[in-house]
Amino acid sequence: MISPYWNARLTRDLTNLSLVRHRNSDGHIISMHQSGTHWLRNMLSMAMARAYNLPEPEYIQDNDFICAPQDASKYPQIPRIVSSHQIPTPLITNRLALSLIRLPDYVLLMRDPRVIAASHYRRFEARYKIPFSEYLRANVELLRQNSRKRKFDKDIWWDLRFQNSWGRMMQLRPGHIHLVRYEELRRDTARHLRDIMQFLHMPAIDDETLAWCIEQSSKESMAQKESPDIAHKVVHQDNKNPLAIYSDDDKRFFLETYRKYCKADFGYDLESGW
User: Fold this and answer.
1) Distance, CA of 31 to CA of 17 (rounded, Å)
2) CA atoms within 13 A of residue 180's CA, in its CB half-sphere
3) Which of 62, 82, 143, 176 has CB 3.0 to 4.6 Å from 57, enough for a Cys bridge?
4) Percent of the residues in the chain that have a pLDDT greater than 90, as a whole number
5) pLDDT higher than 70, residue 232
6) HSE-up of residue 123 (Cα within 13 Å, Cβ side)
7) Which domains are delineated in the chain?
């Protein structure tokens, strides 16, 4: 029986041509789910608003400065930066295909996949209506019984496909993909934010403005700018250890699955820190 990983690679990723169809941008932020996407987007949006003397976004979910690849830019006079969670189709993760098509430069935002799984579950626990252990194992049958949803928004197999595909893209496009680890962005936000802005060819801003952009993107500030139309809030103040949700069996399952399928760990030591 084909594994869920390879089944998704063949039935979803192979035909997913979004990165090819929507490649007209000056820069593309690619991120894992629950990896700080809104945080990074908000900091960059504030910086662009100041640099181009434009109004700040009203809500953190607004796409005024960084939009989805398929959407039109609100301000066509400034660089077009887009954001998504797309997984590259295997049809383009080879040297021949990449020599024939023009793709933009990518900022690749990663996070410890153990934390991502826990964070995603906690955010959508009420929607999935199943225990974490069943979510971790991508128990779609139980999901359908309990919530009538046909699939998870993302699961462990999505994370593995994302990591392996973008790991391969980094090998094939050196210099065109800027890796950012969420944990490092947290530790030294100013330095990494400047690096990202330079990579995206954004206008330079002074240290005071940079500090203001970071301050306006704190959890407290962003929580006050959540859109009232969004059911699932982005900002969570929960400071619990995210890995505490894993049972011993969950840890074994996670590690065994990653040892078997993961081809690109992006520098994360998944064996320690539990």
Assistant:
1) 17
2) 30
3) 62
4) 91
5) no
6) 20
7) 4-112+158-227+236-244 (3.40.50.300)
